Each structure stands twice: as C-alpha cells, then as structure tokens.
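A reminder from the course coordinator: this example appears on the midterm review sheet, so study it carefully.

Given structure:
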C-alpha cells in the first residue's frame, strides 16, 4: 500500500511545491461547488499536480435550475462539459454510475428541480 497525503488550503494556490504530486484525487463536491467560470482554472491546477497515469474519482451532479432561477451550488456539471475540462488528448473519461437522486432526496424537488442526478466518473490522465 502507498501513502495517503492530505493537503488543506486554497486549492488555487496549490502547487507541487506545496505537497508534491499525486497519483489519485477524490473530488466529491469541489468541482460542482465552485462557480462554473472557475472550473477551467481548477482543472488546470489539478492537471499540474496529477502525475501521468494518475486518476481522478469525480462525483458530480446534473440538474436544471432551482426555483429561484440559479443553477447552484451545487452547480450542474453535465457529461458533455467534461471533455472541455479534461481534453481527450490528455484524459480518458469513464462514467462509472449515474443515479436519479430525486426519489431519495426530496429536497431537490422542494428547491424547484425537475431532475437531479449524481454521477461518478473515473478520469485518467494519459501517460
């Protein structure tokens, strides 16, 4: 088994100088929590610290607008946006699971959503 390394701080200030590089990243809620216009910057920073062959386990959500007209947080991240953030020349994206959360979490219907899915992806950085 390898070592587990945790780093706490402002991810946009993160670098390999801070904590080295990583073989794997678990993102459950970070990419969908930040404003969509910050996603490219987040993914660039992630690319800088992930080693070739490294993997990202990404849990994201897809939904329509909330009753107040906003899209989040959490902000919807549809599958077709992933190749923009993780270009196919550099990454392989695999859908692992997608689940309809509306029957399990009625809060989303109360917030005004017509649909709310949670999806898990395995994203591998090409060597």
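Designed residues:
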């Amino acid at each position: 088994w390898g070592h587990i390394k945790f780093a706490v701080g402002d991810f946009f200030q993160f670098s390999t100088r801070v904590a080295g590089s990583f073989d794997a990243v678990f993102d459950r809620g970070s990419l969908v929590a930040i404003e969509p216009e910050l996603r490219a910057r987040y993914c660039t920073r992630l690319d800088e610290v992930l080693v070739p062959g490294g993997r990202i386990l990404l849990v994201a959500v897809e939904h329509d607008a909330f009753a107040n007209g906003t899209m989040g947080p959490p902000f919807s991240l549809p599958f077709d946006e992933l190749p923009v953030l993780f270009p196919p020349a550099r990454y392989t994206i695999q859908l692992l699971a997608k689940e309809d959360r509306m029957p399990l979490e009625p809060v989303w219907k109360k917030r005004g959503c017509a649909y709310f899915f949670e999806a898990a992806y395995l994203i591998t950085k090409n060597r």
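The longest helix spans residues 39-49. The helical segments are 16-19, 30-33, 39-49, 82-85, 107-110.
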